């Protein structure tokens, strides 16, 4: 939003980056950023990309509010710069997205996503099967994965940290990534007969601490899987869907197994929406696992994917239809 622009683009040789949306405002002295300047900026930016303009306005409002509370800047900034009703009306009201996978789309979506490279394929499937936020799942480390007690520890933006169940199919995906992560890269044939800095780098190799590791990324982990997801959607003939749409899909598809809303919210990391949820519901991880596995089994069944076989001494995947049959037998 604030970059100067004019720098060479890495993915498009010969082209340069454009200035950020807020650059034109921040080039002014702080004392000149008033309501009129904000209105002119909104009119100019909404004609091009209204969604990005609305995001830039919210960021600018947060910056102005921070300056108004800071002793050093409170006498310079116009605290009411973003308060004009006319300016907010020109931005328009944001429309709630409704992109989510439907029941009949699961088979095509899984078929194409599973054809992707192992890391993005596992990431996208886990995003759907856990309902997690895109960033908190990308930041997952191997120390946060507990195969023994079947749990995942995520960095939650609301509570700081939350623990959710590790379901059988999700565990199978992570075990495959763990095996790949523990396999050292092959030594190039041209380096086997001589010593060099490249050979030394191969010898000093160690597994990545990131679950969704990436050798090409500077951070060492997956950064932007949107391209892979867009590719899979196009191959499956499905409409465009954001990564957050997969999180929305989890909550929508969970209703097919009549999962309690409070359990879905706790798995996804939403704040309790009622007094009873906040003060009178203490759900252990085992209760969350019971419903989470039912959701996973239903999604995989609709997608036509074979369920993972139970491990010796581990938990058994139970379909909700099996529990209904068991209850009827017990009642009889």
Helix and strand sequence: HHHHHHHEEEHHHHHHHH
What would CATH call the class of the largest domain?
A: Mainly Alpha
Q: Can you list the strand order of the major beta sheet?
A: 1-2-3
SS class: mainly alpha
Unreliable residue runs: 312-323, 325-332
Number of domains: 2
Tell me the radius of gyration: 25 Å
Per CATH, what is the topology of the largest domain? Answer: hpI Integrase, Chain A
Q: What is the general shape?
A: globular
List the total number of helices: 15
User: What value does the average pLDDT take?
Assistant: 85
The CATH architecture of the largest domain: Orthogonal Bundle
Strand residue percentage: under 5%
Quantity of strands, as a count: 3
User: What is the CATH superfamily classification of the largest domain?
Assistant: Intergrase catalytic core
> Cα distance, first to last residue?
65 Å
The largest pleated sheet is described as:
3 strands, antiparallel
- What portion of residues is helical? 40-55%
């Amino acid at each position: 939003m604030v970059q100067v622009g004019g720098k060479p683009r890495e993915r498009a040789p010969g082209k340069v980056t454009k200035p950020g949306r807020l650059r034109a405002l921040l080039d002014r002295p702080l004392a000149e950023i008033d309501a009129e300047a904000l209105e002119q900026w909104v009119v100019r930016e909404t004609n091009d990309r209204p969604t990005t303009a609305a995001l830039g306005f919210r960021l600018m409002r947060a910056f102005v509010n921070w300056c108004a509370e800071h002793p050093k800047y409170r006498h310079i900034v116009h605290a009411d710069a973003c308060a004009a009703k006319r300016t907010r009306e020109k931005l328009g009201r944001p429309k709630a997205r409704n992109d989510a996978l439907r029941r009949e789309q699961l088979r095509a979506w899984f078929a194409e996503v599973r054809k992707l490279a192992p890391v993005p394929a596992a990431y996208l499937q886990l995003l759907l099967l856990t309902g997690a936020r895109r960033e908190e799942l990308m930041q997952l480390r191997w120390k946060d994965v507990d195969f023994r007690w079947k749990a995942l520890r995520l960095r939650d933006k609301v509570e700081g940290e939350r623990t959710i169940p590790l379901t059988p199919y999700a565990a199978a995906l992570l075990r495959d990534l763990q095996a790949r992560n523990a396999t050292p890269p092959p030594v190039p044939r041209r380096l086997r007969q001589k010593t060099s800095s490249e050979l030394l780098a191969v010898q000093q190799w160690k597994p990545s601490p990131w679950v969704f590791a990436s050798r090409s990324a500077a951070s060492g982990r997956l950064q932007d899987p949107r391209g892979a997801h867009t590719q899979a959607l196009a191959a499956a003939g499905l409409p465009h869907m954001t990564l957050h749409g997969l999180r929305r899909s989890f909550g929508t598809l969970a209703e097919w197994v009549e999962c309690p809303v409070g359990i879905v919210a706790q798995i996804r990391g939403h704040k309790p929406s009622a007094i009873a949820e906040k003060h009178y519901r203490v759900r252990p991880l085992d209760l969350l696992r019971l419903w989470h596995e039912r959701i996973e089994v239903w999604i995989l069944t609709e997608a036509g994917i074979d369920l993972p076989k139970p491990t010796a001494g581990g938990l058994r995947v139970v379909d909700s239809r099996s529990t209904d049959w068991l209850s009827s037998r017990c009642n009889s």
